[in-house]
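Rotation project, supervised by the postdoc (A.L.). Task for the rotation student: set up a whole-complex structure prediction and record inputs and outputs verbatim in this book. Inputs entered:
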Amino acid sequence: MTVRTTASLPPRGLPGLDPRFSRLLQVPSSDGSGQAHTWHHLDNLEALEAQGVEPVGTILCVHGNPTWSYLWRSLLSRAADDAAAGRPAWRVIAVDQLEMGFSERTGTARTLATRVADLGDFTRALGLAGSVITLGHDWGGVVSLGWAVDHPDDLAGIALLNTAIHQDPTERIPAPLRLALRRQVLERATVQTPAFLEITLSLAHPPLDPATKDAYRAPYLGAHRRGGIGGFVADIPVDASHESHTELERIAAALRTTSVPTLMLWGPRDPIFGDRYLDDLLERMPHADVHRFEGAGHLIAEDVDYAAAVLGWLAAAPGAPTGPPADPDIFADYQPLWHYLEEFHNSPLPAIVEMAPPGSSEPRTVSWSLLARRVDEIAAGLRVIGVRHGDRVSLLVPPGADLTALLYACVRIGAVVVVADAGLGLRGLTRAVRGARPDVIIGQPKGLAAAAALGWPGRRISTARLPESARRTLGVVHAIADLVDLGAAELAAGSALPVPPRPGDTAAVLFTSGSTGPAKGVVYTHAQLSAIRFALAGQYGVGPGTGLVAGFAPFALLGPALGTRSATPDMDVTQPATLTATAVADAVAAVDGTVVFLSPAAIANVVATSSALSVSDRAALFGVRTFLSAGAPVSERLLSAASELMPGATAHTPYGMTEGLLMTDITLDGIRAAAMDAAASSDARGGVCVGLPTATTTVRISALDADGVASGEPLATAHVTGEIVVSAPHVKDHYDRLWITDSASRAGTGAGRWHRTGDVGHLDAAGRLWVEGRLPHIISSPHGIITPVGPEQRIESVDSVARAAVVGVGPAGIQQVVAIVETVPPAKRVSVADPALAARLRSAAAMPIAGVLVVPRLPTDIRHNSKIDRTALAAWATGVLAGGRMTRP
Amino acid sequence: MRVLVTGASGLLGGATAAAIVAAGNETVTFQRRPSGVVGVSDLLGSVTDPADVARAVRGADAVVHLAAKVSLAGDPAEFEAVNVGGTRALLDAARAAGVGRFVFVSSPSVAHTGGSIAGDDALPADPFRTRGDYARSKAIAERLALAADVAGFAVVVVRPHLVWGPGDTQLVGRIVERARAGRLPLLGHGAALIDTTYVDNAASAIAAALERAVEVHGNSYVVTNGEPRPVADILAGICLASGVAPPAWRVPAGLARAAGGLIEAVWRVRPGRDEPPMTRFLAEQLSTSHWFDQRRTRADLRWSPAVSIDEGLRRLAESAG
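Outputs recorded:
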């Protein structure tokens, strides 16, 4: 064991650490030994007092193993800076635990109980009381939680970075720790060599710079300084026989009764404290605000700006109810998603017609009575295998009758469905599923193979019955058919389904497409899903008796909720562009369809394949009254071409996002009228007119300031460009485990449930909304803020231009506008536009354009094949226009 | 105000002298050959001759110093003598003669260390990291000028970037001559964004710096049109305005840089009468971006360019007939 060495101050010049924060404190021990130990700690109190400000509270920071108080340097500095800027002043104290950092080496092994008592001794010696927020990382998280449960009168809040409070006896501890704990390895890995320290320091994303690494090493130079590192590892209570196990259980149990505001900041790329420990913590403290930083890992404090996150959370008055107040209008209209399944449960009429069901060449019709029974059976079956209210069920099942039945069964028993689009790709899907932490995954054998291979969490249920060997390999516990059997038996035995969930309960987590950044989980309650149904029914006049053709997967799922007779046409649902005109006509004929829902890519192919339509196909299409293209804006040209195929129909295109599926709507005639109005006005901003807000939606604009920040109070003033802010009963409840993103999406919006869309646009005098681009794509030029869509439209009016993207290069405030175009015919390689083309574009754009690049193809998202990632394109253009290599974008 | 303008026989010097006259100043120009500027009195002489210099500054309220050896290659000692020695002599003489304002016309190359520039403001002149003897000598001279800035002797540095216009033998002349001879390749892909300055804009900026010298002394300002364009666009624009075919063949940028360095070295050993067809400096200039933040320049000098690139090209075409 280490010999006794007194505490000292850290060397000067450690990057980011203000030496004035360092303190030494003599702390009498309460263990009856009469000893005192000296602690090194950081404290910004003097810096606050020098500014003459009174702290509103104290953040007590506890590092883990093998770091030291240096971990918290940026929080101390930022808190002092915030105070200087007139924001609430937080005192920040960061200790070096005994045996660690620059605190005393006492020569005694310390257990968890000792460390919790040590920290209590420290705060007593310091005279710390009242309004304390604990903040801990790694094993320091446990110690800080120990302090928290022991000081309920002083505790005002809890914040945690990656940590763990409980080891499930049925799960193995993480492999790296298992290795480190082996007796013959432990001493050598942690004390005799700096291996454990070095491995920890290598876990940062991006890697730490050498000077920062040296700062972390500074207190641990030499084996005699590293005894505490080995002691910490040896103190990990791997099982119930360990001496620290009792203390860990005591803290873990006490947390269940804690109701103080809690924040968890998590780096999922942590080989030790993975998402399962976050799950465990959330299960104990379900009221916690959580933000998972995708891409960050164990050293989350180095990977992301956690200091801003913590202080931002404290400033947002944590603990105040974050959920919106119940809206009486919604609840008056509340109708659960399974309403028509109950109402029509005896009806032999068709609910779903699948034109090309898997494994069959004949259309399959599912009656209301069959669908209702199947939903009940699966619901009962899920109960039998232990799925409960609030459990998360990830549905990796392709759209079709199976998915529909599963979805309604899950929501009926209060399970939360997690829906991620296969369009995210395997990586995106893995991130999404891991982040959502489902309790159950239901999928096809192919999807389950991926789940098994990539270690996705959750029990696995297969869509198909599998041979025993395959079941074992894939870790599959049941097939859907088993659920049906189990459920049918249960119902036959007289069991009833549980009480339905309440309107305010969580119903679903829908993942965004990922076309505008990493996919985010969007949480909806039952009331909000019901409101989506209500909005669709109202806007497009769909309801019981309507024949609905759903060429866009999400609408197929909503058919039973709308009470419609819905048909899914013959197509590869993961590839909307496989939908043909004939397939649409067949589906229309099958359900006597009057409403057709399509996606932009599907419409393009329907128009392209219309020559194959027979006379009877055309006659069927003549009966369509309404069709709409959802997902992304479509051009007037495409919409009118589709209209010619459905001459009796009004063409609609809505504006919405995963967070608010139907915000505004415009008809083809509306688009034409808007274009005429725009041509007659002097407003040169342009944009895509997406029409008027739907009946229950409110649209406001948060004006952009000179720096391009949407800082304006959301208003309905016409002709002001800013971020589009929406409110509706069917707007999302919140983002899943993305507290920072969630609070940013409501920032400055006042009462009610609002969502900042990240889109930029303006309202016109008639109240119509015009979308001018995405907030991150605006160009901050010497001539002011430029939104991309208007100039892109003007450039696209040049004959030889097929598609254009306008981006900014250079520093904010002096960005140069660059146009990147696809030509007709497409260019074979990337080049600077020839002078004649550049001149035509410059004159069409009606604004200074620095450079014009011609590319064979502009990169777009997979899902809609229409959204151009201008941020990536700008980065590419920046390289090329700096004289870098002329690669393809 | 009585203003001495040095180097007025050149394109920019002449335009600057004319702008200063137009602002209502009594203007004397000082160079080896007659300036040809209407409304000024010419004083012939060399900045390397102390007697000439002393005579030139006598009675002046302000000095605008453009005279310099501008070339891509040449004897390093000559750059040193004219650009450093000449500036030092002029500074000393001006202070001794009680001159109150001194505008030193420099070049953005004094802060260019070889990389691409995208939206920088004027960085400090750095003689140790500049490329080529011209830039090095101008960097030293600029630092001398700024070091001389004291109360009562207001020094302002103006760095116009790639000045061009009708009658320009430096940039336009070289481009057109090479293009006509089929010796003008496009370096790399020609996409690098380059700021240039139409000559009248550079002249009006220098005149503005003279006007504002007392308020903004001690500072350096990069001056451009504020309309960066891909280098291919600029070369094509100048060629088309001058009635020659734009460059149609390409040399990879890396190869040109290497070749430029080699040719430069050979030329130093065996100086010919012409400049080397390519230098490392020129290759870098033409294949990496060079555009600047003009906000501080425009705000401090209360100046903005009056002639756009398109208008400048129109005037160039007009003069080429």
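Student's summary: Residues 3 and 39 of chain B are 12 Å apart (CA to CA).
Supervisor addendum: Residues 260-275 of chain B have pLDDT under 50 and may be disordered.
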